[in-house]
Design goal:
One of its GO terms (cellular component) is cytoplasm. One of its GO terms (molecular function) is pyrroline-5-carboxylate reductase activity. With 264 residues, the protein is α/β, with parallel strands linked by helices. 54% of the residues lie in helices and 14% in strands. The protein has twelve helices and eight strands. Strands 3-2-1-4-5-6-7-8 form an eight-stranded mixed beta sheet, with helices on both faces. Helix 7 packs across helix 12 (243-261) and helix 8 packs across helix 9 (192-212). The structure holds 1,4-dihydronicotinamide adenine dinucleotide and (2S)-3,4-dihydro-2H-pyrrole-2-carboxylic acid (A1CAB).
């Protein structure tokens, strides 16, 4: 039995992805504080909403997808009812395995994970790091669960804030670029629906080449850039407006924020 504690945006992405892989909804519980949200998910996915204590006592694996600011309160509720031998996986930004362990019964196996919302469509990217009491079997169990909704990479825990900044928040950067490109297409006079289709499929195609061709992105970009052509004219403007340094500053800010969240 799996329990997802906190079924907001990330919790739902994981829930939907896990069910899509053929997991029986009867084997998944949710614990969601907002009643109307719990009801919506029950209707959509057929999963039951139970108290944190019931989730802790019935599920072998607890997946915590609540905000970092709500984490300690939720851990205290779970800790009171958690039998030995359970696996607790947290996807909260900035919450270290040490903090999780401190608020759970001694020796509890914890895994810190950082997924992203494309898990909803089975294309997630998750990084995992084991806590002090998580065995190889626990880590493998967390990897199998998160691997059902995309790719999984093991990282040292010290890299988790950087991972959060890059792949955890990363989808938002791509969506912002997509949004801006669609608006630019509309500015050029394209119908909005046309611009949306052009941008979405260009994103999908570019992402597939980036992942599957084995080529460095710089080479893929060069292949689009004809001498004296349109792409070179566009790229010069992107460089002039500081796209690279904007991204470097952005991921640094995200990493800092992730580190701040661990301070409570
Ligand atoms: N949204 C994203 O792209 C990603 C989010 N995360 C992490 O996932 C966590 C959740 O983020 P979001 O889904 O964006 O936030 P959200 O606000 O959409 O979801 C949090 C949910 O938890 C519920 N909740 C709060 N306290 C609770 C409690 N004690 N018991 C049961 N339910 C409770 C809230 O009602 C809400 O539905 C955060 O820790 C975030 O760092 C990690 C990776 C990506
Ligand atoms: O914005 C956030 O804090 C969460 C963590 C990574 C993506 N969303």
């Amino acid at each position: 039995m799996i329990a997802i504690i906190g079924a907001g945006r990330m919790g739902e992405a994981l829930l939907a992805g896990i069910l899509d892989t053929g997991h029986d909804p009867a084997g998944v519980l949710i614990t969601e504080a907002r009643q109307e949200r719990a009801e919506e998910l029950r209707e959509r996915y057929g999963v039951a909403n139970v108290s944190a204590a019931e989730a802790a006592s019935r599920a072998d694996t607890l997946l915590l997808a609540i905000k970092p600011q709500d984490m300690v309160a939720a851990l205290n509720e779970i800790a009171a009812a958690l039998p030995p031998g359970r696996l607790v996986v947290s996807v909260a930004a900035g919450i270290t395995t040490a903090v999780l362990e401190k608020h759970l019964p001694p020796e509890t196996a914890v895994v810190r994970a950082m997924p992203n919302t494309p898990a909803l469509v089975g294309q997630g990217m998750t990084a995992v790091a084991a806590g002090a009491h998580a065995s190889a079997e626990h880590l493998a169990r967390a990897e199998a669960l998160l691997g059902s909704v995309g790719r999984v990479l093991r990282v040292p825990e010290k890299h988790m804030d950087a991972v959060t900044a890059l792949s955890g928040s990363g989808p938002a950067y791509f969506y912002l670029v997509a949004e801006a490109m669609i608006e630019a297409g509309v500015l050029l006079g394209l119908p909005r629906a046309t611009a949306e289709t052009l941008v979405a499929q260009t994103a999908v195609g570019s992402a597939a080449m980036l992942r599957d061709s084995g080529e460095h992105p710089a080479l893929l970009r060069e292949a689009v850039t004809s001498p004296g052509g349109t792409t070179a004219a566009a790229l010069r403007e992107l460089e002039r407006h500081g796209l690279r340094s904007a991204l470097a500053d952005a991921v640094e800010a995200a990493q800092r924020r992730s580190a701040e969240l661990s301070e409570g």
